[in-house]
Write a structure and sequence with these properties.
It is built from eight helices and no strands. The chain is globular.
Length: about 170
């Protein structure tokens, strides 16, 4: 048996053999099906990175959201006093929003919606972070620096959520 026969002839014969109750696929169909299968199952590097980012972001949001219920006092203190109602209501509402957004990010089928929800959430809690700077201004430099440092961190968080949205398949 020659190399040509093993490499070319036998695979062609096997591809064109009829199976019971099936029509023979053409070589073009067989090759097309093979290529589609291979490319659709092979994730790109960007998708893998985006998936890991979504999982980290989702886990962080679920954890922080749960913390709103386990230890709500620190969150209550940064709710702007100008808002009507109890600070605890806003703390619990933002905790629910964080857990729900995190859960959406963790599930691949809802990841795009979760990324949009994360962007909205990060923008919605920004006023509380600004209020935190105002409230902690008199607490000394370490607290003041910590509060100020939170403000620009919102930008990369929004950008990461936007990246997840753009790189998640529809």
């Amino acid at each position: 048996m020659s190399c040509v026969q093993v490499l070319l002839v036998e695979p062609l014969e096997a591809a064109t053999q009829l199976t019971p109750r099936h029509e023979a696929p053409s070589l073009a169909e067989g090759a097309a099906q093979h290529n589609v299968t291979m490319t659709s199952l092979t994730p790109s590097r960007v998708d893998t990175s985006s998936q890991a980012t979504a999982q980290r972001m989702g886990a962080m949001l679920v954890g922080m959201g749960a913390l709103h219920f386990v230890a709500p006092k620190p969150f209550d203190t940064i709710v702007p006093a100008e808002l009507p109602g109890s600070a605890r209501v806003y703390t619990h509402a933002s905790g629910v929003a964080e857990v729900a957004t995190g859960a959406l990010l963790l599930v691949p089928r809802t990841r795009r919606l979760g990324a949009l929800a994360a962007i909205a959430l990060y923008l919605a809690v920004f006023p509380a972070n600004v209020n935190m700077v105002r409230l902690w201004w008199s607490k000394g430099w370490p607290a003041r620096i910590g509060a100020i440092a939170r403000l620009p961190l919102q930008v990369p968080m929004v950008m990461q959520a936007l990246k997840v949205y753009r790189n998640t398949p529809r």
